[in-house]
């Protein structure tokens, strides 16, 4: 998404990414992004909670007016119960995914080289 956003911005179309994976947003270097500290899949608010969803989207869209430089703004929303819900879904098992890092990850060496070359242009 960040690559697409940067392309659109380069031709004059403003973009804004709403995400809940700060490390991924940071690695992607989007022109404009809003981070919400909710579990993945709930970036736009809690399931079936129209009030929460509207509040998050309204706050995020302010980024079009308030963000004057590329970056990631942290929205003032947290949902501890959402993280607990994910743990319950996994029957009490801990997350077994690999630890996240701030280092970009690529599917191939060719992808890494292409990304690095694009960043230098």
Question: Could you give a quick summary of the protein structure above?
Answer:
This protein has 121 residues and is of the alpha/beta class. It is built from 6 helices and 3 strands, in the order H-E-H-E-H-H-E-H-H.
Structure description:
By secondary structure, the chain is of the alpha/beta class. It is built from six helices and three strands. The protein has one domain. The chain has helices spanning 2-10, 22-28, 50-61, 63-66, 80-89, 109-120, and strands spanning 17-19, 32-37, 71-78. It has a three-stranded parallel sheet with strand order 1-2-3, sandwiched between helices. The chain starts with a helix and ends with a helix. The mean pLDDT is 87.
Instruction: For the record, give the distance between the C-alpha atoms at the N and C termini, rounded to a whole number.
Output: 19 Å
Our count of domains comes out at: 1
Overall average residue pLDDT: 87
Q: List the strand order in the largest sheet.
A: 1-2-3
Gyration radius, rounded: 16 Å
